[in-house]
Design a protein that fits this description.
With 210 residues, the chain is mostly helical. The protein contains nine helices and no strands.
C-alpha cells in the first residue's frame, strides 16, 4: 500500500510538472505579447514541426534576439506598432497576404499544415510570437530584392549577418528597426558580436554552424 501511494504521488507530481511546462512554454507563443526564451523557442519549434519552410540554421532565433532581445526591449510592443518580436512592419505583413507567390504557394501550405487562414490574419495578431515569426519567415521566402535575398538562408554566422542587413529590413515604410534605433546592428560585425554575447549569457541557443 505504501509503495502504491508513492507511485500515485509521483504520477500526480509528474503530471503537474508537465502541465506547468506546457503552460510556460507549450502555448506561450500563441499568447499576446508573450516574451522570453520559452516563447521564442516554442514558436520556432512549432514552425519547424510544420515543415513548411527549409531549415533556417537558427537565423530566426538569432533575429529575435537582435530585433527585440526576445521581446525584452520595452519598445517591442510600442503604441501603434504591432509587428511583434520579429518587428514585421505593416507593409511587409500586407505583402505576405497579397504577393502572388505567397497566395499560390505558401498560404495553402500554411492553411494545410497549421490550419491558419493567412488572408484573415490581422497585423495586430503579430503581437503573438508565433504569428510574428510566421510573417517574418514568409516574407523572407517571397522576397526577391536585392537579388541575393532569393537564395536560401545561409548557415554560417558571418553570412547570416550580411543576409540580415541586406534582406531582413527592406520595408518602404518609415519604421526603423529597434536594433537600428539602439545602434546595436549597423554592420555584420555588430550582428556577430550581439549573437556571441547572447550565447555567452546563455540567452539563446548556441548549436549549429558558426
Amino acid at each position: 500500500m505504501f509503495y502504491r501511494q508513492r507511485w500515485v504521488t509521483a504520477g500526480v507530481l509528474l503530471a503537474t510538472v508537465s502541465s506547468l511546462f506546457w503552460l510556460v512554454g507549450g502555448q506561450s507563443d500563441l499568447t499576446m505579447e508573450s516574451t522570453g526564451k520559452y516563447a521564442i523557442e516554442s514558436a520556432i519549434g512549432r514552425l519547424s514541426r510544420a515543415r513548411i519552410f527549409n531549415d533556417d540554421h537558427e537565423f530566426m532565433r538569432r533575429v529575435a534576439w537582435i530585433e527585440t532581445r526576445d521581446g525584452g526591449d520595452p519598445k517591442t510592443f510600442r503604441t501603434g506598432y504591432y509587428g511583434g518580436i520579429w518587428q514585421v512592419d505593416a507593409d511587409v505583413f500586407f505583402n505576405t497576404q497579397t504577393d502572388p507567390v505567397a497566395i499560390s504557394v505558401w498560404q495553402p501550405r500554411i492553411a494545410s499544415k497549421l490550419n491558419i487562414s493567412w488572408p484573415d490574419v490581422l497585423w495586430k495578431d503579430l503581437r503573438k510570437p508565433f504569428y510574428s515569426l510566421l510573417a517574418a519567415r514568409l516574407q523572407l521566402q517571397i522576397q526577391t530584392q536585392p537579388g541575393e535575398c532569393k537564395r536560401p538562408i545561409p548557415n554560417s554566422l558571418p553570412d547570416q549577418a550580411t543576409f540580415y542587413l541586406r534582406c531582413y529590413h527592406t520595408s518602404s515604410s518609415n519604421q526603423i528597426s529597434l536594433s537600428m534605433q539602439m545602434g546595436a546592428v549597423r554592420n555584420p560585425n555588430s550582428f556577430i558580436l550581439a549573437i556571441t554575447e547572447c550565447r555567452k549569457a546563455m540567452s539563446c541557443t548556441s548549436g549549429g554552424p558558426t
